[in-house]
Each structure stands twice: as C-alpha cells, then as structure tokens.
C-alpha cells in the first residue's frame, strides 16, 4: 500500500511540474516558487530593526532604490528596514513626496503610459478590484507632491518573488506582510524620500 501511495504522489507531483513548466513566462514567478521558502525569510530582505545614520527625523520613510531597501526612521538612531522591489531602469520615482492617501486592498488601473509600454495591460484598462489577484496587494500608500497624486505608490504585491529586483512600472513593492506593517506605522502626511 505504501509503495502505491508514493507512486501515486510521485505521479501527481511529476504531472504538476510538467503542467507548470508550460505555463511560465518571463513576467511570472520562477518555476516552483510556491514550493520555495518565503522570499521575506532571506535575511537580506527580512523586515528588521537596523542602525540608521541618515539625517531624516523619526517618522520619515526613506527608499534606497539602489540597495532595494525602504527605511522607516525611528528614534535613537534606529530604523525598521524592509526589502523592496523597485521600478525598471528609467521608470523609478526619485525625489520627495508625502503620503496623500492610504488604502487597504486597493483597486488598480494601469496608466496610459503603462499600457503604451506594455500593450498586454490594455485588458485591465477598466481596472482590477482590490483582492489577492490585484497587483497592488494588501495595501497602498499613495505618493503626492504639491497636493497632486504622482501616480507612484508604496504597495504590497502578489509577486513576492520580485522583492530585491528592479521589475515594476515605477512603484515600490513590499511583501503583503511588510506593507501591512508599514501601513500601520505611516500616516497621511508622512514624508517620503526616494533616492
């Protein structure tokens, strides 16, 4: 009986791997991602308290796009550091902004520029409601300058494998667990510095 069970399991898992191999693309997670460790478990990108020597006051969010880290500045020379995914070359937001709006499980609609760069996004032109399949993930912090929406966001992702990479259309992605943590700390009006 045990031999049949193992054989059936092997057959099922082997068939699943074969089916999945035909469904992968350059835009999706690596094959077998669902069977791998949570990418946030990687010490490089795990949320952690670190020493912070920058000049920004506590409560400021600093995003270092080159190193793929976001810092929420705390008191006493400390910060909470999160691993992030950033925009593809030439698509990243740089500069200062404030959080002008916050949303849990936000809806998403690609901008006209996004559709022009990636025509396959046209099928989402009417938007996607909030939920697990939405590219903005569990929450979003909307970046504003001068009272105007920049169309850039700090947000969760349904592609946690992308953390540590330059893959987005310009927004800053965190795992859903980490955007939930940041969402609870950051208030509307929080200063954000993206370098």
From TrEMBL:
GO MF, one example: peptidoglycan L,D-transpeptidase activity
Swiss-Prot/TrEMBL keywords: Cell shape, Cell wall biogenesis/degradation, Glycosyltransferase, Hydrolase, Peptidoglycan synthesis, Plasmid, Transferase
GO terms for cellular component: extracellular region
Domain L,D-TPase catalytic: 59-195
Gene3D superfamilies documented for this protein: L,D-transpeptidase catalytic domain-like
InterPro entries: LD-transpeptidase, LD_TPept_cat_dom, Transpep_catalytic_dom
PROSITE patterns (alphabetical): LD_TPASE, PROKAR_LIPOPROTEIN
Membership in a protein family: Belongs to the YkuD family.
Protein known as: L, D-transpeptidase catalytic domain family protein
Lineage, opening ranks: Bacteria, Pseudomonadati, Pseudomonadota, Alphaproteobacteria, Hyphomicrobiales
């Amino acid at each position: 009986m045990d031999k049949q069970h193992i054989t059936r399991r092997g057959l099922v898992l082997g068939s699943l791997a074969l089916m999945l191999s035909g469904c992968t693309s350059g835009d999706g997670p690596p094959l077998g991602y669902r069977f791998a460790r949570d990418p946030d478990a990687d010490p490089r990108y795990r949320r952690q308290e670190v020493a912070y020597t920058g000049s920004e006051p506590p409560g400021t969010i600093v995003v270092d796009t080159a190193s793929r880290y976001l810092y929420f500045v705390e008191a006493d020379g400390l910060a909470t550091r999160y691993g992030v995914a950033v925009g593809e070359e030439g698509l990243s937001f740089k500069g200062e902004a404030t959080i002008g709006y916050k949303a849990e499980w936000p809806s998403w609609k690609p901008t006209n520029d996004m559709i022009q760069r990636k025509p396959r996004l046209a099928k989402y032109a009417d938007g996607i409601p909030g939920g697990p399949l939405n590219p903005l993930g569990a929450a979003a912090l909307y970046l504003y300058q001068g009272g105007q929406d920049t169309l850039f966001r700090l947000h969760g992702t349904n592609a946690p494998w992308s953390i540590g990479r330059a893959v987005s259309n310009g927004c800053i992605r965190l795992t859903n667990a980490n955007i939930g943590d940041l969402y609870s700390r950051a208030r509307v009006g929080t200063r954000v510095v993206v370098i």
